[in-house]
Design a protein that fits this description.
By secondary structure, the protein is mainly beta. The protein has no helices and eleven strands.
């Protein structure tokens, strides 16, 4: 079972940047879907950015143009570059890996998750 460990979360001022990393314990080709999720206090967890296969990427509308997700198979690392951060970007960010379900969707419910890293955007 793949183990995922996130790093890079910290306190940053609005307008600042952070780069999150997620180290995978095994070959990233073992999972088709890779994603960053976040959860703010009192809110449901939401997908921020997802990579399908090697090239297809989707972003949540309110981070598009500010966040970039990338995957380095050789380093077994999933990254999230976050620029022009806003207070509403605060939360626990977790990386996840999943296979495709029989419906052709990413089955993160049965996927692998890291413990998360805290991002706080505040003055």
């Amino acid at each position: 079972e793949v183990q995922l460990v996130e790093s890079g979360g910290e306190l940053v001022q609005p307008g600042g940047s952070l780069r999150l990393s997620c180290a995978a314990s095994e070959d990233m080709a073992s999972s088709y879907c890779w994603a960053w999720f976040r959860q703010a206090p009192g809110k449901e967890r939401e997908a921020v950015a997802t990579i399908f296969g090697e090239t297809d990427i989707s972003y949540r509308a309110n981070v598009k143009g500010r966040f970039i997700i990338s995957k380095d198979n050789a380093q077994r690392t999933l990254s999230l570059q976050m620029d022009r951060l806003k207070p509403e970007d605060s939360g626990i960010y977790s990386c996840a890996a999943a296979s495709l379900s029989s419906y052709g969707t990413c089955d993160f419910v049965r996927g692998h998750w890291g413990q998360g890293t805290q991002v706080t955007v505040s003055t």
